[in-house]
Amino acid sequence: MNKIKNIYKLFFFVLLTTMVSCNNEEDFKDLQSQTTTVQKNSVFIITDDTVQKTNLTGVNDPQTIAFGINKAVDTDTNVVFKVQKNGNDAIEGTDYTISPATITANETNATTDVTFLTEGDYKVFIESTDNATLQIAPNYFLYKVLPPTTFTITWSDSFYDYDLYLLEGNQDINGNIIAFSNGTTTTESFSAVPKLGFNSVYILDYLGDNAGTPVTLTIDDGTIHTYDISMDMSKFVLTIEASVDANNNVVYNYTQL
Amino acid sequence: MLSFSVMAQYKVSGTVKDTNGDPISGVSVVVKGTKNGTTTDFDGKYSLVVKKGDVVEFSSVGYETVTKVMDGTAIVDVVMAEGLTLDEVVLVGSRRAGRTVIDSPVPVDVIDIKDIANNGPQTTVNEILNYVAPSFTSTTQTVSDGTDHVDPASLRGLGPDQVLVLINGKRRHKSSLVNINGTVGTGTVGTDMNAIPTAAIEKIEVLRDGAAAQYGSDAIAGVINIVMKKSTDELTLNVNSGANISKHSNKYNEGGMDGEKFQIDANYGVAIGNKGGFINFTGAIEKRNPTNRSDSMGKQIYTFFDVAARNLGYDAAFAMNPSALTAYVATLDPSLNTTYTNMIANGDSFIDIAAADASEYELNARGLTRDDFRMKVGQSKLDSGKFFMNMEIPLNDENSKIYASGGMSLRNGLAAGFYRRPAYTDGRADVALLPNGFLPHIASTVKDKSLITGIKGKIGDWDIDFSNTYGKNSFDFTIKNTVNATLGRSSQRQFEAGGFAFTQNTTNLDLSKFYENIFKGLNVAFGAEYRMENYELKAGEETSWARYDVNGQIVTSTTPASDLVYSYFGKIVPGGAQVFPGFRPSNEVNQGRNNYAGYVDVEADITDNTMIGAAVRYEDYSDFGSTFNSKLSTRIKFNDNIAIRGAVSTGFRAPDLHQIYFNSTATQFIAGVPYEVLTARNGSTLAKALNIPKLKEETSFNVSAGFTFNIPDAKLKITIDGYMVNVKNRVGLTRNYTPNSDPLVIAAFNDANASKARFFTNGFGTKSKGVDIVIAHKINIGEGLLNNSLSGTLSKTEVVDIKNILGTPILDNRAVGFIESAMPRTKVNLTNNYSIKKWNFMLRNVYFGEVSDPDFLGTPNEVTYGSKIVTDLSLSYKASNSLKFSFGANNLLDVYPDEVPAGSNYGRQFIFSRRTSQFGFNGRYVFGRLTFTLKN
Fold first, then answer.
1. Of A24, A227, B308, B820, which is most buried with the most CB atoms under 10 A?
2. Between residues 519 and 578 of chain B, which touch chain A (CB distance below 8 Å)?
3. CB distance B316–A42 less than 8 Å?
4. Which residue of B327, B347, B481 is in closest CB contact with A137?
5. Cβ within 8 Å, pair A28-B439
6. Residue B764 and residue B797 in contact, taking contact as beta carbons nearer than 8 Å
7. Do B324 and A44 touch (CB under 8 A)?
8. Which helix (H) or strand (E) holds B828?
9. Domain that holds residue B309
10. B326 touches chain A (CB under 8 A)
11. B561 domain-assigned
12. CB-CB: which of B262, B319, B323 is closest to A47?
């Protein structure tokens, strides 16, 4: 009898110990943020730029700026851009002009064109909108409006016809054409501002003579640079690497090919 | 035909006591020259069927052996005096019946599990052996997938797959898990001894010597024989509870209690008939909580993108270009503006700024802390149930019997992986669904079952044993609290990732005969074995392994790059269940093989003092061919107190089916094109293209020598054994390989659509040498008895002959480090046990030598973690014949390994190295135990 009692006591003790020892804590649970977040809408400049860079341009050269909002709204949104020149507010009509910037109702993006009228360093960003619910992302574009660089080629024999091109990129035949001159005289010339990074000068042998004609390329960026070229074929003749130095000056590095 | 003739046999029983009149449990009672024997129970009682004239030996560690000639008296009580002959009869190491530890030609440790499990803090087989057996090393792993629940174990610094495990002398099947993680034992398949309840075990014999010529494959470092209980007519119930009470519990700098463990096991045996038959059952359940030794998450948690996502909504933020997003976030707080401004000035890209650290600001905004992102680094959670049975039924009075043993176990483990922080820029944290990321978990279900059946008897003068051993182990993985990130918001949170299974069936026929009149005794044994094995790898559900495109279709090599799922940062989002992508249908395996073996084993007592043994074994495998191994051993006793022994042998280890057939696939994108990163199957087209041969056996050459030395007057015994084990063609997992400039190699990788691949190959060798020392001492102090035991091992393993693939060694510095220096080369154990009346006190100090962290090997700043001493203390009180209390602590002084250098501890998550295997890092473990014994 005692043994049976002992067994019962043992059983209840084990049961009690099991209940006390069992851990019913959850093994894991999703981490919940404590604050309530409100999903907002914002307006911002649209760009594929991967880094903040300075765009090089010239006077009276329209620059298109795309902008947008996260979620379409059901009314037109008028966006006001701010333009600064050399750190101060620029004067519209004197330093720049800008086209109206409106995102149509139920759309999410639009464009505007800004044209700089004087040389200098410019910053363009969104200042405000007529929709108070929109958050404004203050990303911006930087521009250096520069005097143009003049590119000229000359040769003596009018039998031959050569055309002059300035392309964006490093000897990229499919690069964006910045400027070109393709007349019928023994000289071709244009003025343009090279883009930040690599630019390339291409001379086209229009008639395909491949004659090895001597051609002189002259570049005037405030300093005259002269290059003698033998036109044995259509080809890239020069690269220009444009960069901004520590003193915020544009530097052109020319490499004859 | 078995003999059933009736002889003058009868049952003798009695009680074995010491000189103080206290009963001695666990005494080996064996008819000399036979395998007919039993052990005394808790009260020192025994019963055995004998014949008139039989010489019965009573032996136990720490006592002088007593022999009695059976004269027909039914009750024979025995008194044993304390001594140090250490001549307990062992089953392993020799096929000659009745060999004792001291007679053995090779070193054998006998570990009395009952005493240790009842008095000490260690409760699993691996834990006990790690703290008690010299040259045995095993620690729990962390953040290592399934290896969190199987503790890789090593004998003499060799691999977990180079030690053979037996149950009652029969081969135990291996685990189905092959270790492919960066921990000790990478590339190996071990035996899961934790599937066996310790309450079912009588003792464990550890043979520290090569024994392949006797037992076959795997017995390179040694053999562990687990001898199961035979007790009857008593119910033993253990209730064991404990926890880690440590300065680093719960959190590194918090302290407290974690790792709570509750275990209850019961053992009960019933006599069958009146000729010594029995059936003994054991059941055990265990519930173990995890431990966590990480600190607050020190890695980046949030980015600028996460700030924008919280404020604007995930979709709106995702649609913003990085220029706008980062500029917007910069307006929200001066600290963010500072980061933004500095990075702009530094010329950093907008994407880099979008990935910039916004952790402190965002944690505050969300009301969270770095503690909310801690990983779980420590012991995994584990619930288990185990059952084991051991039985023998005599058939006649000639000691013929049928026997069986076997069991089942089910273990459910839960371990965590790396926290998927929102700061991961490849989108794996799926913040669209879980804005704060998640901590994925791996739930492993480990099932194990085994059954040994056999019949023993006599044919003429030959002892015969015919048996069949079946075993199966399986792992199934469920991945919880995770996602397939390519499914975004629609991802499920739990996945069945597949698993493995390994089955083994071994049939043995063993015959032996003892010739009394040849020399001073000659034992001849021979036998045969047939074994079948099967390995399965099962695929998981599709969502566990698939990478989906934006249309919800599985990505293939023809999927356009524009259809892939990209993160905000332009990276291709990885597919499959995070932390453990499931196995694919193409990975599935169901393969088997068979082998047969024959052996001859001869042991001759040339004189009373000199024994010579020789064994040869031939095995033929259906996949890789045949092996022939041999062993020579000798033991010379100069007198009762001095003996020398030595052995020379060759050995082998067959490549596991897991190593031959395991394969897995992960996907990596290069320039938008998916490539597979493979663990390629041995024998695959890619392996053949790289001239990786079919796996074959590892071969070993073992030499051991030692001596035993008694000083009876001082009650001192010393054994010293030196060894050398050279292994050739060890199977290991190579580093990842990429194609070189060879067109054929490039073509092979392209055909497999692989950018990287690793393989199992016979790629290196090892040379191991060392010395094991065991010193035992006993002395009476007052009315009590003090047992002292000092055991130590000094070892060294060197990796040699590393082969090359594509001109590069197959093992990198880290892989070499796992073998050479991640485990202690020196381990010393000093145990002092004092028993007086109803009390028992145990003090154990274990010295673990220094280890080197494999992660730093080959770098200018190699890291070594210093040697440590871990102290165990326990007290037991026997309140009555039925009740005993024990309590104490493992690692009483709360010692921890040296810490990983700051800056290399993954944001203070791996403060203690998970690459080395010293003594673990759970800290102090305090326990209490009640042992109930009820007798009929």
1. B308
2. none
3. yes
4. B327
5. yes
6. no
7. yes
8. strand B826-836
9. 304-373
10. yes
11. no
12. B323
Residue B145, pLDDT > 70, answer no
In whole angstroms, give the CA distance from residue A184 to residue A192: 20
Among A25-29, B157-161, B688-692, B769-773, the range scoring the smallest mean pLDDT is A25-29
Closest CA of chain A from B291, distance in Å: 12
Q: How many domains does chain B have?
A: 1
Read off the pLDDT of residues B284-331 as tens digits, 9 standing for 90 and up: 999 999 999 999 999 999 999 999 999 999 999 999 999 999 999 999
What's the fold here for domain A149-256?
Jelly Rolls (2.60.120)
Structure tokens at B581: 């992508």
Does residue B354 lie in a domain region?
A: yes
Q: Is B350 close to A51, i.e. CB distance below 8 A?
A: yes
CA distance B822 to chain A (A): 31
User: What residues contact residue B686 under an 8 Å CB cut-off, 6+ apart?
Assistant: B678, B680, B748, B749, B751, B752, B754, B757
Task: Specify the DSSP element, H or E, that contains B53.
Answer: none
Quick count: other Cβ atoms within 10 Å of Cβ B102? 24
Residue B664 binned pLDDT confidence (cut-offs 50, 70, 90):
confident
**Is residue A23's pLDDT more than 60?**
no
Indicate the domain borders of chain A.
Answer: 41-146, 149-256
Which among B287, B311, B323 has the least Cβ separation from residue A21?
B287
Taking contacts as CB-CB distances below 8 angstroms, the residues of chain A near B344 are 52
Measured distance CA(B384)–CA(B382) in Å, rounded: 6
| Domain A41-146 belongs in CATH node 2.60.40.2030 | yes
Question: Of the candidates B602, B466, B459, B460, which has an alpha carbon nearest to the alpha carbon of residue B528?
Answer: B466
Answer whether residue B43 is part of any domain: no
Residue A176, min C-alpha distance to chain B (Å): 23
**CA–CA separation, B97 vs B94, rounded Å?**
8
In a domain, B333, yes or no: yes
pLDDT score of A17 more than 60: no
> How many Cα neighbours within 13 Å face the side chain of B385?
1
Judge contact between B639 and B627, C-beta under 8 A.
no
Contact flag B366-A46 (C-beta cutoff 8 Å)? no
Q: Specify the pLDDT at position B147.
A: 67
Interface pTM, i.e. ipTM: 0.84
Count of CB atoms within 10 A of residue B456's CB?
21
Q: For B155-181, write each residue's pLDDT tens digit.
A: 888 888 999 999 999 999 999 999 887
Which pLDDT tens digit goes with each residue over B534-574? Answer: 999 999 999 999 999 999 999 988 899 999 999 999 999 99
Asked whether the beta carbons of residue B264 and residue A30 sit closer than 8 angstroms, the reply is: no
Taking residues B805-828, report their average pLDDT: 90
- pLDDT tier, A22 (very low <50, low <70, confident <90, very high otherwise): very low
- SS3 at position B325: helix
Which chain B residues contact residue A109 at CB under 8 A? Answer: none
